[in-house]
Specification:
It is built from 7 helices and 6 strands. The structure holds zinc ion. The site of zinc ion has 5 residues, from loops.
């Protein structure tokens, strides 16, 4: 079995920008590339799990998203890290295009994306983490019994103010990475 780090994308790996979909607007969070390199060196597989309701809302397409994720994955690899797969949920239960308007089991806080990856990559949940900036990330992690982690980047500070957070909290992804060395 493999140990894994599940990562939210927007606000965790890259700077949160509303409905980001253009490569020129993509900006890694401080220390994120170094963090991803550390995960690789420590023998974790890294799986991205991201809600992308901008697709349901018609703001961008799945093709746009895949191009952006490919760009991110290439940059990560150049720096010495590796993302094995980027899972995304294109759905929204109420808003937008008909083909995406479902109450799915993949939009976090649901755990569909994580459940799929755990089976596909034979992941040991006891040795694995889910890192994100929103309470939906933490809840999705708890559902599959990986250790949830909140980062203060993105919406992380707001999440701390608004929600009763009981998991460990780090300033950013790099600080979390250093904590598991
Ligand atoms: Zn979904």
């Amino acid at each position: 079995m493999k140990k894994a780090i599940f990562l939210d994308r927007d606000g965790t790996i890259n700077v949160e920008k509303d409905y980001l979909h253009k490569i020129e607007d993509f900006e890694f969070e401080t220390g994120a590339l170094e963090a991803l390199k550390i995960f690789q060196e420590l023998g974790y597989i890294v799986v991205v799990v991201t809600n992308q309701s901008g697709i349901a809302r018609g703001y961008y397409t799945e093709t746009d998203l895949k191009k952006l994720n490919d760009y991110m994955s290439i940059k990560v690899k150049e720096y010495g890290g590796n993302i094995v797969e980027c899972y995304y949920c294109p759905h929204h239960s109420e808003k937008g295009l008909e083909q995406y308007k479902i109450k799915c089991n993949c939009r976090k806080p649901e755990a569909g994306m994580l459940i799929d990856a755990i089976a596909r990559y034979d992941i040991d949940v006891e040795k694995s983490y889910m890192v994100g900036d929103k309470v939906s990330d933490i809840k999705a992690g708890e559902k599959v019994k990986v250790t949830p982690i909140l980062v203060k980047t993105g919406y992380g500070k707001k999440t701390l103010e608004k929600e009763n957070i009981t998991c460990k909290v780090y300033d950013n992804l790099l600080e979390f990475a250093k904590s598991i060395i």
